[in-house]
Structures are given as C-alpha cells and as structure tokens.
Design a protein that fits this description.
Layout (H helix, E strand, L loop, with lengths): L1 H16 L5 E2 L1 H10 L4 E6 L4 H8 L5 H10 L1 E6 L6 E3 L2 E3 L1 E5 L2 E4 H7 L9 E5 L5 E5 L5 H12 L3
Parallel strand pairs: 1-3, 2-3
Antiparallel strand pairs: 2-8, 4-5, 6-7, 8-9
Length: about 160
C-alpha cells in the first residue's frame, strides 16, 4: 500500500514539475525587455484555426521548445480577432471590423502580414527595436521549430 501511495505521489510531483510555457502580454514583455533584453516571440492565431490548435497542443508542449522559448524569448500569444485595444511601444492598436462578425486586430495585421495577406498560424520574432527577425506563416512542428529558435536566440 505504501509503495502505491509513493508511486502516485511521485507521479503527481513529476507532473507538476513538467515545463510550462511562460505566456506574457505585450505590455509585460515590453516591461521585462527593459530589465532583460530578449526577442519577443508573437504567436498569432484565431480560435477557429485547427492548425493553430495543433501548434498549441503539440509544438508548444514540446519540452525542448518550451525551454528554448522560456530561456531566450518573451512568448506572447495574440488572438488575431481579439477586440480589446492593445498598447505596444506607445501606440494603441485596435480591432478592425471587416464585415458581419469578422475582423482583425491591427497588431496581428502589423506583425503577421506576409505579401499583403495574413494566414494562421503565424509567428513573428521581434528584436529589441521591434524589427521582425523571423516570420513564419504556417503550421510549424517542434522538429522544425527547434532549429529556428536556436538560430533566432543568437540574435540577442
């Protein structure tokens, strides 16, 4: 009986120690950047995007991806259809309706547009001057993400 309780306790303890991705708001990332400059990783997604959900449930659950993001970047998850205004670098970005029950957040548009259009998922990595270092507009698995993060971490 003691052995079973110990095994359950050990399992629960190990589960709580599993790495978790630190998610920041842009305001938090901006503040943290002043104390410890790191690139900002912005994951642009929507609630209806199945590939976005796949990245959330696989790529961003991978222990090596989590460690690379937590150690070298400020991770920001940005819903492209968020209706709340967001202040970033002294500029207020707002939601822009584009029709009945559709629209896009100006910040998602600014950070996620590639060749005049935006697709989901998209992620952009920004340097300390908010220059986009890397922008990928497609599902990215952990195997592909890891070398990208390692390379981008060198631009610190």
């Amino acid at each position: 009986m003691k052995k079973n309780i110990f095994t359950i306790f050990l399992f629960l303890f190990a589960f709580t120690l599993s790495a978790q991705l630190k998610n920041h708001t842009l305001a938090e990332a901006e503040k943290l950047e002043q104390q410890d400059p790191k690139p900002v990783f912005v994951f642009i997604h929507t609630s209806w995007c199945k590939y976005c959900k796949m990245m959330e449930n696989s790529t961003f659950k991978n222990p090596e991806v989590i460690q690379l993001l937590n150690d070298n970047f400020y991770f920001v998850s940005l819903d492209a259809e968020n209706k709340a205004p967001i202040t970033f670098k002294n500029h207020i970005f707002k939601y822009k309706p584009k029709g009945k029950n559709t629209g896009i957040h100006e910040l998602a548009e600014a950070l996620g547009t590639v060749d005049g259009s935006i697709t989901y998922p998209t992620f952009s990595i920004l340097d300390k001057n908010n220059t986009i270092l890397l922008q990928i507009s497609e599902y990215t698995d952990a195997k592909t993400m890891i070398p990208l993060l390692k390379e981008a971490a060198n631009f610190r």
